[in-house]
Amino acid sequence: MKLIIVLTLIFAVIIGGALYYMYSRKPSSTSGEIIVDAAPIAKPILDRVIGVFENKTGVKVDVSYDASGVIYTKIKEGAPIDVVVFASRDWGLKALNEGLVYPTPSTGLGYQLVVVYVRASTPHNITCLDDLARYNVKIGVANPDVAPAGYEALRIINQSPNAGLLKSKIVVAKDIAELATWFKIGVVDAAFIWNTFNSTLANLTKAVIYPWRCGYNTTVYYSPVYISKTSRNVQEARELVEFLSSDYVKNVERSLGFFATEEEARVFMRSTST
């Protein structure tokens, strides 16, 4: 009988100790890695800064690129993504209103504006958007269903009294990269492309049309960054979002031709309005 009691006590001590170890110790980091799903528009910035964040924190960052609609669907279906970077404010607000992302911390990347580049080979004097309606030209626009720049191009064109004529001249590229290539090789005479392409298109360009100078409302675009509620590494995700809002990243954005804040873009618009 004493032997049974002793064995029972020993068993209880072993089980108790095991339970204490399991529940009292601090949980370790799940993987030391965070998953980022971003719209391709943010790639130039992320390519430059993610390595710096990894070296600074020791946290590995796995970045993949998808259209905003795909990113939205992934987190809605519960995919374990830590940080999401949408192509435009609309997608960010949609995810926020659906409760799919945390409201804070958040930040914006890559503020930019859609402008119209006119090829140097175009023989006409084109200084404003509506001049394009008067000539036999091809106007390049990225697919508005997937490209924010294409959506903004149509929004601007629809404000024109010559919207019908302008639309009849549109040639639709699958994305902004294809449109830039078309412009370079002369498939189109003018193209609605981000201001950040200025350095690569300048030597082929006769004029850059600023839609706001012609009286058309123009939206400042940026890529909103949020922590997904499917994140398994919220603390590390928070560190990344805070890093992406740092002065270091803002300076990188400026070096790539982006505006670092919406106010910087607004200042540029005011300075080029006349």
From TrEMBL:
Gene3D superfamilies: Periplasmic binding protein-like II. It holds the Pfam family SBP_bac_11. Keywords: Metal-binding, Signal. One of its GO terms (molecular function) is molybdate ion binding. The keyword ATP-binding does not apply. One of its GO terms (biological process) is molybdate ion transport. The keyword Coiled coil does not apply. PANTHER family: MOLYBDATE-BINDING PERIPLASMIC PROTEIN (PTHR30632), SULFATE-BINDING PROTEIN (PTHR30632:SF0). This is Molybdate ABC transporter substrate-binding protein. It comes from Thermogladius calderae.
